[in-house]
Design goal:
It contains four helices and no strands. By secondary structure, it is mainly alpha-helical.
Length: about 140
């Protein structure tokens, strides 16, 4: 089997760090959520946090298969102090993920790595759904 490029392996590790970051960030937001608005969305945050952790696991398995060592260090976690700060950060994080994952898909295609391409197309679908959820919440704050 052809090995993945260092660039692709590095991007996969960046993706893992990002997934670890948001899984912790969203779970802590779920825990810290308060008030009526918080009651209405805290379970959704928990659900998204779990999906993000599953993404981290899937990407780590792929990276390891390709010969890389998965990171255990998340990207910087920003929980926020207010509901508006939290959701604004979440929107930004999802936008960054969408951009990064499109880059990974393109690079995987160029390298002929159809499995990584497929994995990230599925993850990208989830991230766009999360982005939609958070942008909708921003409209209500």
């Amino acid at each position: 089997m052809k090995k993945a490029s260092k660039e692709l392996l590095d991007l996969l590790n960046d993706a893992i760090a990002r997934e670890l970051q948001v899984s912790i960030q969203y779970m802590w937001q779920h825990v810290m959520w308060g008030g009526v608005k918080g009651f209405a969305v805290k379970d959704e945050l928990k659900k998204i946090a779990i999906v993000e952790m599953k993404h981290a696991e899937k990407i780590a398995e792929r990276l390891y298969y390709l010969g890389g060592t998965p990171t255990t260090k998340p990207s910087p976690i920003v929980v926020g102090k207010t509901l508006k700060e939290m959701i604004a950060q979440d929107v930004k994080d999802e936008e960054n993920a969408i951009e990064m994952y499109k880059k990974i898909i393109d690079l995987a295609r160029k390298e002929g790595d159809e499995v990584t391409n497929l994995i990230f197309r599925h993850i990208l679908e989830d991230e766009e759904e999360h982005h939609d959820t958070f942008t909708t919440l921003m409209e209500e704050i």
